[in-house]
Amino acid sequence: MGESPYGDSYDGGLRKVARVVLLDPDDRILLLHGHEPEDPADDWWFTPGGGVEGDETREAAALRELAEETGITEVELGPVLWRRMCSFPFAGRRWDQDEWYYLARTTQTATRAVALTELERRSVAGARWWTCRELARAHETVYPTRLAELLRRLLDEGPPAGPVTLDPEIV
What we know:
The two termini are 25 Å apart. It is globular and about 40 Å long. It is built from four helices and twelve strands, in the order E-E-E-E-E-E-H-E-E-H-E-H-E-H-E-E. The chain has 171 residues and is of the alpha/beta class. It has one domain (15-170): Nucleoside Triphosphate Pyrophosphohydrolase (Alpha-Beta Complex). GO terms for molecular function: hydrolase activity.
């Protein structure tokens, strides 16, 4: 296992990432609004989360990233819902990631980015709570791309018995 220039842990060339599917008491999901640092019109929505640092667990990374990106610390972290391999260009380089999505619930709905990296400050334009219906009707780009369908299934059926492997996404 190696390290990226950002201190993230890599395994076989893949950046180990923990993401959070954060739901409020009304079953709304929190998404961050991201964009290319040099092109705010090239934008998308995504779940909070980021790279595992050093020898921290994915659970610890999920909670740390959520706190840094949203200021939300009152969280009940649940099981891993989904796993996904993805590869995408961002900020002048290609990112190859092994992402684990954790279910979490909170009653704390006010958000405030408290510890963004320099790159995040240039590429994250805020956060928004979405209902499943809003997500299903959205014309914006959302990652993972089937998030509305995945969220609907989660709300209807509850968490899967074990992590579901999503189709790889290569952008």
